[in-house]
């Protein structure tokens, strides 16, 4: 399921988004799933919209920060009108390799992205102290400190879609897919106890904390919804 990607610096966020794109259900009419090489202006041109429309409809704070696997609305929500700045095709088309089509792809209908993620209930993956919180830009997840060898457990039931150490800066990494929308990631482990394709249960030990590719022992934990990073603290029990 994972393709071999030969890029010097591939961030964990990019891999998570790629996995989401590979494993999630088709998007419905009026939506578009971001592919490698896409830009917002390219998607806007392909769907005969303006960049401001897409920014407004998708509540984008940074139009340059769209990610592979992210689902975008490319048609007016609820019958709302487009602004007059919509880009029209002149027949010469977009230049080489555009991945967006001139109209939303005919795919089986679904509900599209929700204004707020469908709730998921997680348990804490490790017993420790949060030393860095999610901010959506510099930190795509939370960092939890504890002693080396502390058990790391699955925050929810799912399937292992990545187990390895091929991403520089993330050490021994596990990625679990929970459904068509959600992924969780567990980085810097000293040992992994599950393998790709294996089903795991909520609370099952999947790794032990370590400091691989880190200057201290910690677990870097991420939660992804439709390829986009969201604050895992909102799905975890209060402490």
TrEMBL record:
<dbReference type="Pfam" id="PF01476">
    <property type="entry name" value="LysM"/>
</dbReference>
<dbReference type="InterPro" id="IPR050570">
    <property type="entry name" value="Cell_wall_metabolism_enzyme"/>
</dbReference>
<dbReference type="InterPro" id="IPR011055">
    <property type="entry name" value="Dup_hybrid_motif"/>
</dbReference>
<keyword id="KW-0732">Signal</keyword>
<feature type="domain" description="LysM">
    <location>
        <begin position="30"/>
        <end position="74"/>
    </location>
</feature>
<dbReference type="GO" id="GO:0032153">
    <property type="term" value="C:cell division site"/>
</dbReference>
<dbReference type="Pfam" id="PF01551">
    <property type="entry name" value="Peptidase_M23"/>
</dbReference>
<dbReference type="InterPro" id="IPR016047">
    <property type="entry name" value="M23ase_b-sheet_dom"/>
</dbReference>
<feature type="region of interest" description="Disordered">
    <location>
        <begin position="77"/>
        <end position="120"/>
    </location>
</feature>
<feature type="compositionally biased region" description="Low complexity">
    <location>
        <begin position="77"/>
        <end position="103"/>
    </location>
</feature>
<comment type="similarity">
    <text>Belongs to the E.coli NlpD/Haemophilus LppB family.</text>
</comment>
<dbReference type="GO" id="GO:0009279">
    <property type="term" value="C:cell outer membrane"/>
</dbReference>
<dbReference type="GO" id="GO:0004222">
    <property type="term" value="F:metalloendopeptidase activity"/>
</dbReference>
<dbReference type="InterPro" id="IPR018392">
    <property type="entry name" value="LysM"/>
</dbReference>
<feature type="signal peptide">
    <location>
        <begin position="1"/>
        <end position="27"/>
    </location>
</feature>
<protein>
    <submittedName>
        <fullName>Peptidoglycan DD-metalloendopeptidase family protein</fullName>
    </submittedName>
</protein>
<dbReference type="InterPro" id="IPR036779">
    <property type="entry name" value="LysM_dom_sf"/>
</dbReference>
């Amino acid at each position: 399921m994972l393709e071999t990607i030969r890029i010097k610096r591939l961030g964990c966020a990019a891999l998570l988004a790629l996995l989401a794109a590979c494993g999630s259900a088709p998007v419905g009419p009026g939506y578009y799933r971001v592919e490698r090489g896409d830009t917002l202006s390219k998607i806007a041109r392909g769907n005969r919209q303006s960049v401001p429309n897409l920014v407004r409809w998708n509540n984008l704070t940074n139009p340059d920060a769209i990610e592979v696997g992210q689902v975008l609305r490319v048609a007016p929500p609820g019958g709302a009108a487009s602004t007059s700045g919509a880009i029209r095709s002149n027949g010469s088309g977009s230049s080489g390799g555009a991945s967006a089509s001139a109209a939303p792809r005919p795919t089986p209908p679904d509900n599209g992205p929700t204004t707020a993620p469908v709730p998921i209930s997680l348990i804490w993956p490790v017993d420790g102290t949060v030393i860095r919180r999610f901010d959506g830009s510099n930190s795509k997840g939370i960092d939890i400190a504890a002693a080396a060898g502390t058990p790391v457990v699955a925050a929810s039931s799912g399937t292992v879609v990545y187990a390895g150490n091929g991403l520089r800066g993330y050490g021994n990494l596990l990625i679990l897919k929970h459904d068509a929308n959600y992924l969780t990631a567990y980085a810097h482990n000293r040992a992994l106890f599950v393998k790709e394709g294996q089903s795991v249960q909520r609370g099952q030990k999947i790794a032990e904390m370590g400091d691989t590719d880190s200057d201290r022992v910690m677990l870097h934990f991420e939660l992804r919804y439709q390829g986009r990073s969201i604050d895992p603290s909102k799905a975890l029990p209060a402490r």
